[in-house]
Design a protein that fits this description.
Chain lengths: 397, 225
């Protein structure tokens, strides 16, 4: 078989591509975890209307800016749960210690002080209704970790809480550490959640509030788990494809270029795909305009203009977006022909999709731009009128 | 009335696209039963309509999976009323299922479709990869894979009209297709046809936003799973 054509003058830094892709996978895992719990609490809310859930909480605190935990749930004014998903703890011990002490403990302490929950009430039958402000008398913070890091996370977290030097960050109630788990052979498609066995782990206090679905009685330390099948959470994931945290630019760029930008052109600019916009169209959009559009499409969405800006800047080196002025970008919507670019970048292998392509184009474009700056030599590819470097897009007309 | 198959093109699966000319005419039911047994699909047939297997032909015609039909000889009346009317009805029913599936921005407005298979089609990552590979090769669209192990979640954007779909292999026998904000009937037909060609014909069913039920959680919370 002939080797793939390599038109790029610089070898692709595949490690950099993989690093970007790992962030994409980690964010999707976080999205799955949040969707699992949204599905669970949606079911609970149908049995107990006082239960409410919020996927994009912004919680006021007595001092400082409002907090934005990953998601939260309230059992009326009796009990509240603030969730934080931690799927990417550093494996390096020193880095992990620093992250726990400098970031996680202060965050934990602040979350434990949340007293006002702005939740969304699920109504039986027709789902989402409206925002509901509740002030639970008791609040627990739940940390959800990945099974691959369950032991190092538990040791580091509870070890840091035991350390007298961190006494200012110890919350009134110990946090509850849940572990997202999957069977070792990966044959089951389900997510399972169990409480970590560490004796210092906190306890759910929802007994009697959720009848047979009480987490306090059912998720005792041991082998009891909450299992969530994809069919239970998939519609929640599709409906809300983001979580309450700045997504990796690669993740948001993939969503924008394959879902929201075509819809934006169609609905806002009145340009339809049948008119040929995938053959190439340029248009200008502000990050606020785009954030507003995406938020219209996501129930209770809280997509921030900065998230959009990060995604657009990420696509700059590949010539898909160009900053025209503060908060404004020129966007190019074109067919992303994965196989074509894969050959152009000299990448072998199967399973390439838009996300991997965008990661590779970003790494390649960034490297080319740096090389160009260093050498001042003319680049091997087209330089468009904006002066930005871009790979030639295959004509599809 | 009997449909006697004269010639058939088999093997949409894989690279096989063998044309079989039958020396001994056989009934269409025998032909399709045999194809199912061999895990093959028939892309088109040239056939005679007759009252006995070895009797004279009342109509000679051609029909493909895509609905292309050609009249060769015989009764025009039979061709129009027995064949074209039946094709029209089948296509109409399918179009009804696939039309008006776009979601709105309102919560819980998803209008998913499910393709149900009699056998397990999505057991492991290899099966997932097969679907990704199939959709990646379609020149009229592009695939974004969000999750591939152990369950599959991807999205497919159709460049011809901007329709897009989330696709989930939710269990080994079910593929869920969830149209996004734009979903045309013809784009869904293109997508379903491509999937059918690789994974055999499944039964397409309309569903709604799936609200979790007790069985999704109860058993596991009782520690029985």
């Amino acid at each position: 078989m002939a080797p793939p054509e390599r038109s790029a003058s610089l070898p692709l830094d595949e490690e950099a591509v993989n690093d970007l892709y790992k962030g994409y996978i980690r964010y999707d895992l976080c999205l799955d975890i949040v969707s699992c719990w949204e599905a669970f609490f949606a079911w609970c809310a149908e049995q107990h209307p006082s239960i409410c859930f919020h996927r994009f909480p912004v919680c006021p605190v007595p001092v400082g800016k409002p907090l934005t935990p990953d998601f939260c749930c309230a059992y009326g004014d009796k009990y509240g749960l603030v969730f934080d998903v931690k799927t990417g703890i550093p494996n390096d011990q020193d880095m992990r210690k620093r992250q726990i002490e400098n970031n996680i403990l202060p965050q934990l302490k602040k979350y434990s002080e949340i007293s006002t929950f702005n939740c969304v009430k699920y109504a039986p039958g027709n789902g989402l209704t409206n925002f509901w402000v509740v002030k639970p008398k008791l609040v627990d913070v739940v940390i959800v970790g990945n099974y691959l890091q369950s032991e190092i996370l538990a040791d580091s977290l509870f070890g840091a809480l035991d350390d007298p030097r961190n006494k200012d960050f110890v919350p009134a109630r110990p946090p509850i550490l849940l572990i997202e788990n999957r069977p070792g052979d990966l044959t089951s498609k389900a997510y399972t959640f169990r409480k970590h066995h560490d004796p210092r782990n906190g306890n759910f206090a929802d007994t009697g509030l959720n009848s047979e679905l009480d987490l306090g009685r059912k998720l005792t330390t041991g082998d009891k788990t909450l299992t969530v099948l994809p069919k239970a959470f998939m519609d929640f994931k599709i409906q809300t494809p983001l979580v309450n945290d700045d997504p990796p630019p690669l993740y948001l760029a993939s969503l924008l270029w394959t879902r929201y930008l075509p819809a934006f052109l169609d609905e806002v600019k009145g340009i339809r795909a049948e008119d040929g916009f995938f053959r190439g169209v340029k248009f200008v959009v502000t990050i606020q305009e785009m954030a507003d559009f995406v938020n219209q499409k996501i129930p209770t969405g809280r997509v921030q203009p900065e998230w959009i800006e990060h995604a657009f800047l990420f696509c700059g080196p590949m010539g898909l977006a160009r900053k025209t002025r503060e908060h404004e970008f020129e966007i190019i919507l074109k067919q992303l022909r994965v196989q074509h670019f894969r050959r152009k970048l000299g990448i072998d292998g199967k399973g390439w999709d838009v996300s991997k392509l965008l990661a590779a184009l970003h790494v390649h474009g960034t490297a080319q731009a740096r090389a160009k700056q260093r050498s001042k030599a003319p680049p091997p590819h087209r330089v468009d009128q904006s002066g930005q470097f871009s790979l030639e897009f295959e004509s599809t007309s | 009335m009997l449909i006697r198959c004269v010639k058939a093109k088999h093997g949409i699966k894989g690279d096989r696209r063998d044309t079989t000319q039958y020396e001994t005419p056989r009934s269409h039911s025998e032909l399709f039963d045999q194809a199912k047994e061999l895990n093959e699909q028939i892309s088109n047939i040239q056939f005679d309509v007759c009252s006995e297997l070895d009797g004279p032909s009342n109509l000679s015609a051609f029909l493909s999976r895509e609905g292309v039909s050609k009249y060769h000889t015989g009764s025009v009346n039979l061709f129009v009323h027995a064949l074209l009317d039946s094709i029209s009805q089948t296509v109409g029913e399918k179009a009804n299922i696939l039309s008006n599936r776009a979601r709105s921005a309102q919560a819980f407005s998803l209008k998913p479709l499910e393709i149900l298979y009699a056998e397990e089609k999505f057991r492991d990552r290899q099966d997932n990869d097969r679907l990704i590979s199939l959709l990646s090769q379609l020149r009229h669209g592009v695939v974004s894979v969000f999750h591939n192990n152990p369950y599959l979640h991807l999205s497919f954007l159709d460049y011809l009209d901007g329709s897009s779909f989330d696709i989930f292999a939710v269990d080994s026998k079910t593929l869920s297709i969830v149209p996004a904000f734009r979903s045309s009937t013809v784009a869904l037909m293109r997508l379903c046809e491509a999937i059918d060609n690789e994974f055999e014909d499944g039964v397409i069913k309309q569903t709604t936003f799936r609200r979790p039920t007790s069985s999704d959680f109860q058993g596991s919370l009782d520690g029985t799973s």
